[in-house]
Amino acid sequence: MTTHTGLDAREALAERLVDATTHALETLSVHLGLELGLYQALADLGAATEAEVAAHAGVAPRYAREWLEQQAAAGYLACDDPARPPEQRRYRLPTGHAEVLLDADSPDYAAPVAATFAGVARVLPQLLEAYRSGGGVPYAAYGQELRRGIAALNRPMFLHELASTWLPAVPGLDRRLRSAPPARVLDLGCGLGASSIALARAYPRAQVLGVDLDQASIAEARARAAEAGVADRVTFVVGDAARVTAEAPVDLVTLFEALHDLGDPVGALRAARGLLADDGSVLVADERVADAFTTPGEPIERFMYGWSVLHCLPATLAEHPVEATGTVLRAPTVARWAAAAGFTGFEVLSIDNPFWRFYRLHG
Ligand SMILES: C[S@@+](CC[C@H](N)C(=O)[O-])C[C@H]1O[C@@H](n2cnc3c(N)ncnc32)[C@H](O)[C@@H]1O
Predict the structure, then answer these.
(1) Which of 109, 183, 186, 299 lies at a C-alpha separation of 20 to 30 Å from 5?
(2) Does the global pTM surpass 0.90?
(3) Burial (Cβ within 10 Å: 0-12, 13-18, ≥19) of residue 37
(4) If the chain, 363 residues long, is cut into consecutive pieces of 10 residues, what is the mean pLDDT of each piece?
(5) 236 alpha carbon to ligand 1 midpoint, in Å?
């Protein structure tokens, strides 16, 4: 009986590993499709043959055939006539898939998760070395795949939820952001600045300073602010959040999915508090994980732990940190950090979001 159960467990785990690898391989194939413009070709052409897709995207025909077959087998694409010879088959994006794969403004735009995964794939040898030495893997080493992937994944939330839902949840903030003299906002760990830019667009008086340790992110953030026509009110600087300086008083400090990444989170919160206006707030959005570690983990915990072991923890360890929490930042830890930084007010805001929890720090 024991042996039988053991066998079932072995089979189940072996099957699970093969299944998981299938999904991982498919995720990287999505990355290929996005980077090479293969999905875009199908969006432009409608139902198309392998030769049409290859010509439109500028890829070698033999690769186009294999990728199209693989995508159709996986259900990412539809094939209208699979029984015909390969060169006569027509492939297309099923209804709804273009939004998920190509519509950068859509709340359902999930495609960039494939790029973030590709960013991790880039550093696997460095990760092995870091695990042995206890060192880190710098954020920059994960490349543009991770940097742009994160920004693209989070951007739709900033477009659709930041000004309509999140900021109005902080008492008095919406009114302050609309009034004179212009409100000052500090966006710590701003990445490519999508949150800073969305805030400036929603509040035409507000002045925003975005700060991030990653030089490439700040360079792209500046370009994006100029493109969006808000560079006169949105400034970006490279710097450590724990050593931030800004013109005070600041009405709002934001940290969107960044607090858990900082090498000195309490230092950053303390610096933010030192710049805040008397009635100012810090708004933290971080991962929607449970208050305590349990096993087995819910899907969101597994997702966040996956990022933690492969990215967030090694990237923070590269900062020679005071704390290295990893991705799984739980509410009691945020409360402890807030108190250590001197805040007397701490609230978990009731904002509905599948990935993030929202905290208001004040006082
Ligand atoms: C998960 S990303 C989130 C970026 C952005 N807020 C967004 O939502 O797209 C975390 C960011 O924190 C930044 N970061 C890490 N350590 C930092 C530090 N000590 N000071 C400032 N930024 C830091 C990283 O460079 C990265 O851009």
Answers:
(1) 299
(2) yes
(3) middle
(4) 70 97 98 98 98 98 98 98 97 98 98 98 98 98 98 98 98 97 98 98 98 98 98 98 96 98 98 98 98 97 98 97 96 98 98 97 97
(5) 13
